[in-house]
From TrEMBL:
Keywords: Disulfide bond, Glycoprotein, Golgi apparatus, Membrane, Signal-anchor, Transferase, Transmembrane, Transmembrane helix. Residues 120-407 form the Trichome birefringence-like C-terminal domain. PANTHER family: OS06G0272800 PROTEIN, PROTEIN TRICHOME BIREFRINGENCE-LIKE 9-RELATED. Residues 67-119 form the Trichome birefringence-like N-terminal domain. It is a single-pass type II membrane protein. GO terms for cellular component: Golgi membrane. Pfam families: PC-Esterase, PMR5N. This is Predicted protein. It is found in: Golgi apparatus membrane. GO terms for molecular function: xylan O-acetyltransferase activity. Belongs to the PC-esterase family. TBL subfamily.
Length: 410
């Protein structure tokens, strides 16, 4: 039996990692133009094709016993072929394309998530697109939100490829079904400005100014256009930051600024989720809306952290009892669940359904499914950095979209 493992959080990633993410952003004007086209032509009909909504806020859908918690379970072997490859889905980014970059043990693609008390069917692209006809989904958050969005686009490719097909696209339109998927890069969910690229320890982590009561307009201004909004964030809150509320400095996390109270990342995570969910619930648009909060997926760095020789070399999922999650990440998940509950209460009577996608336990059991060094080479570095935060595609992240389909249409 494997010895219990300690999960290490991803702290202070290099500034090169930051530049990579910004490199793939569309200019704001281009994204806005895409959304205008989406609103004008991509969502015809607005006929309610979804089944009646459940009042339950757990991940249960039509035809399933509500006592079944789809988020409690285990990973079981699935000998079937992978659902897609980098040939059938060219949208897979090089950082997640573990097959292309030589991950030696491909067993990580041959597992599926099985809840304790029910079966979770594999994602059915035709069924999903049929139910989503005339609707739209937005993923809001950090690179793990984009990781899930890319998984969804790849799963849907078996039935329809979006147009235009572009690797850097932020809006994917499925013209035959009048369905659209959009991604909004917003790692803090609120307005954030990088004020020092090197950061207080000169490690390249940066120093950020976070306006915790101001949702990031890059996504919040468009929230009312979408039927479904999936919100997920977490890893960027480890970066040093100073906090503002109503324009006033109130504290920081890891900023090392004299006479500024360190309120820790818990403070910023809580208020950022509070502001973001309030904005998602209250967004104008005149349509019913579903807001899904996806909890954190822990990293699996062993024997160090990202910048200190940490790696993830295990080749099979863990069993319950084999793992010990970092206490800070437990607290981050708890904060997300609490802020979800508060937003759910505030949403009552507003035509907004709130759903919690509590993936933390399931993803914590998959140390085998990260890219590690088997990802796109970074020419500015002497060696490929180990990535034990994101998820190989295809792989464990696809289970999150199995859950998404089940939560939305049963």
């Amino acid at each position: 039996m494997l010895t219990p493992m300690k999960f290490h959080v991803v702290k202070l990633p290099s500034i090169a990692h930051c530049r990579r993410h910004w490199h793939y952003m569309f200019p704001a004007a281009v994204l806005t133009a895409c959304l205008v086209v989406l609103a004008a032509t991509g969502l015809p009909g607005r006929v309610p094709l979804m089944p009646p909504l459940l009042t339950s806020t757990t991940g249960h859908g039509r035809g399933v016993d509500r006592s079944c918690d789809i988020f409690k379970g285990e990973w079981v072997r699935d000998p079937g072929a992978p659902r897609y490859t980098n040939e059938t889905c060219p949208v897979i980014h090089g950082h997640y394309d573990c097959m292309r970059y030589g991950k030696p043990d491909l067993g990580f693609i041959r597992w599926r998530w099985r809840p304790d008390e029910c079966e979770l069917p594999r994602f059915d692209a035709a069924r999903f697109l049929g139910a989503m006809r005339g609707k739209s989904v937005a993923f809001v958050g950090d690179s793990l939100a984009r990781n899930q969005m890319h998984s969804l686009v790849c799963l849907l490719a078996r039935t329809e490829r979006p147009a235009p097909w572009t690797k850097a696209g932020y809006v994917y339109r499925y013209e035959r079904h009048g369905f659209a998927v959009a991604d909004f890069w917003s790692p803090f969910l609120v307005r954030a400005v990088e004020t020092d690229r090197d950061g207080p320890t000169r490690s390249g982590a940066g120093l950020w100014s976070l306006h915790l009561d101001e949702p990031d307009a890059g996504w919040a201004a468009h929230a009312g256009m979408f039927d479904y909004i999936v919100v997920s964030a977490g890893s960027w809150f480890y970066r040093p930051a100073v906090f503002y509320e109503r324009g006033r400095l109130v504290g920081c996390s890891g900023c090392l600024v004299p006479n500024v109270t360190d309120l820790t990342l818990r403070y910023s995570l809580r208020l950022a989720f509070r502001s973001a969910l309030r904005s998602a619930v209250g967004a104008p648009g005149g349509r019913s809306r579903t807001v899904i909060v996806r909890t954190i997926s822990p990293s699996h760095y062993e024997n160090g952290t990202r910048n200190e020789d940490g790696d993830c070399v295990r080749t099979r999922p863990l069993q319950r009892g084999e793992w010990e999650m970092d206490e800070e990440q437990k607290e981050m998940r708890r904060i997300q669940v609490e802020e979800f509950a508060a937003a759910e209460a505030a949403a009552r009577g507003k035509g907004v359904r709130m759903l919690l996608m509590d993936v933390t336990e399931a993803m914590a059991l998959r140390p085998d499914a990260h890219p590690s060094k088997y990802r796109m080479w970074e020419p500015e570095k002497f060696r490929v950095s180990r990535d034990c935060l994101h998820w190989c595609l295809p792989g464990a992240m696809d289970a999150c979209n199995d859950m998404l389909l089940h939560m939305l249409i049963g």
